[in-house]
Hints:
Blueprint: H1 2-20, H2 34-60, H3 63-69, E1 70-77, E2 83-85, H4 86-92, E3 99-112, E4 115-126, E5 130-142, E6 147-159
Parallel strand pairs: 1-6
Antiparallel strand pairs: 1-2, 3-4, 4-5, 5-6
Amino acid sequence: MKAAIFVSLGRTLFAIAGMLLPSATPASGQSPTAEAREEESADAAALMALERQVEAAYLHADTAFLRATLREDFRFSHGGGTVAGKDDTLANFAKAGNFVSRTLTSVEVEVHENVALTSGRIEIRSTRPAEYTICYVRLYERRSGPWQLVSHRAFRQASGFTETCSPR
């Protein structure tokens, strides 16, 4: 039942993102220009770097960075079903020392003009002690400034580091 809920939530997020995301291909159906591909590649590289910065901020309780990066209406959906807004997320990650490491693996970046999806795995070692993997999807948006994180949705969590995050 729990797995079905996470699959359903993941499909819902992708459906909503699909409605919000403008097409990456020009309206005429032609392939993007070389200039557009270069811009998308630069955006993807910037977002990959931002993904690492976000994880470092969670690891080291860098709330100043998170406050600037998380959009005001940010939502953090935990693997267990709880949903936190920006203020609760900042409070949850305000104390350094909760994590030994948070390592991103298998990260993919999908850019659509001013909106982007990232997905992948986070291998977490906490000080409880516990080791677990989170499969996630994040939604970023760039309005008139830098990219901002709009939503983080963990759609699967498993003990250890064997979880592949592949569709089941």
